[in-house]
## 1
Amino acid sequence: VLAERFVITSEPLEAPALEAIVGGPGCGAVATFVGRVRAQNAGRTVLWLDYEAYPPLALAAFERIAREAAERWPEASLAIAHRTGRLEIGEASVIVAAGSPHRREAFAACRYGIERVKQIAPIWKHEHFEGGDVWIEGATADPADDAAREIAVARACS
Amino acid sequence: MFVTIRLFARLREIAGAAELQRELPADATAETAWSSLAAEFGGLSEYQRTVSVAVNEEYAKFSTALRDGDEVAFLPPVSGG
């Protein structure tokens, strides 16, 4: 069974399934980013993270991010998966896989993908650390914010 | 009209509910829904400048006019990844 290209799941993430989707016979390059739960954050000792998502909107955001990447790097394609629920230290929370004929576009599209996930995907991490818990709040989600998109492009091309 | 309000993460905790049904005036916008909610749950007002809104599972502007039966989701700053 082929995996979906865009995934929100409480199950452990598997990079090979996403890589198979983006890496057709014409792809000499697949770049994969795996985001994992870190044991320290902002000076705190992290115990675990709880991820919450708004799944239908998150999947729509992933599709939008892949469309944006395809506009910029027409030969590249993206697959994006994010996990929800309780994750232990070291577990994968997000995977972005980018396939392309050549490595430059694969790396760039992959980096762009994870930057945009952090900007506009309706997903939240609730950090449980030694001594308490806190909701992590990053970017105000606004897909139409061109300045944010330009920041993601700049990081992808740096 | 009646709408379904969806709340996530800390907004959900402040309101004590992930989903609420609320009656709004016929000419209500997403802004109307947010204002009435912030009046009901004072803790929400700290998100006045940073909250995002989605209507029927699509990102929307606060000026978006609502219709009976709409699902209006309010989203605190995101932190996926």
Note: The longest strand of chain B covers residues 2-7.
## 2
Amino acid sequence: MDQDYYYTLLNFIGIHALLVVGLNLLLGYAGQISLGHAAFFGLGAYTSGILTATAGVNPWLALPAGLAVAGAAAFLIGIPALKLRGYYLAMATLGFGIIMYIILNRSRGLDRRPLGAQRHSRRCPWPASLQHPRRLFLLIWPVLGVILCYQRQPGGLPHRPGHPGLARQRSRGRVSRGGHLPPECSFLSGAPSTPPWPALYAHTLNFIAPSSFGFMFSIKLVTMVVLGGMASIWGSLLGAGRSPCCRNFSRCSTIRNGHLRGILMVVMIFLPRGLVRGILDVWELRRYRKEGGNSSDS
Amino acid sequence: MGTMLGLKGFSAAIIGGLGSLAGGVLGGLVLGVAEALATGFLSSGYRDAVAFLLLLLVLFLRPQGLWEGRK
């Protein structure tokens, strides 16, 4: 039983990490903010949850169905929205997120509307039931591993130039962030690549309610990206793991709630590129200076 | 605490056109009237959805705002 608890915790970290990696493509590599990712996540989770619990579809078929619905939504909203940039895009995605939240909350077709649906997915004979946390763990983490490794490959994603002077300029915001990928590309790969995971979310929790997919969840995702480090794939893992770990392992409620926002502020002020990139930047800069580089060439 | 109020203020500014004072006033008026109409004709639960739908429409069809904000 205790073991199950830790597996579930790891599953949540994995699901959040998958989402954060998707958002990181948009935020870190294209420099655009989307505040509507929770809506795509919610759409996928609802599709898969309703299909398995109400319609009794095999969870393995419900996974791609969740992907298809949420991907289609991201594609449709992406056509007009991606003409916009900067905070116009942020406001458009935010508006979409809030509209989806209200629809999920109000529509009559969904079980017990704001209360959510608590159903256990039915047993399925083939190929394996997704009910047990350990089985889900064996599904989620290998997927996450493959995605992380793919993005570390040379052909996977463009990497930032490792020049410390440039890195330092970036860290001070003199060079605009992102711009490596066109936003269209990363929105389309980021937004629909997130939605299969909400299906997993529905299976992990066995419960879905609109309140899990509200505006604050989008904010939380952006926070995770920023804290872990923009355009840093491993930072996504750290950012996603931080919140569930602190919530579950700290007994002190100040650490759980208020204190961590203070940490976020400190990170944003002193290491604006996130924990992982920021610490690497400091280290690179120190090495650069030690090698006799001129520190004032910025 | 006031999150929705702040978001709607920003939406009103965008609807009217960022960078113009009169546009902000117009945006706020349009947003408020649309919300009140939605409450009356649809349902009070969809009030916020209508407000943000208006924002989406303006952003997609006329991103500079209703009042021709500064470009």
Note: Residues 120-127, 154-182, 189-195 of chain A have pLDDT under 50 and may be disordered.
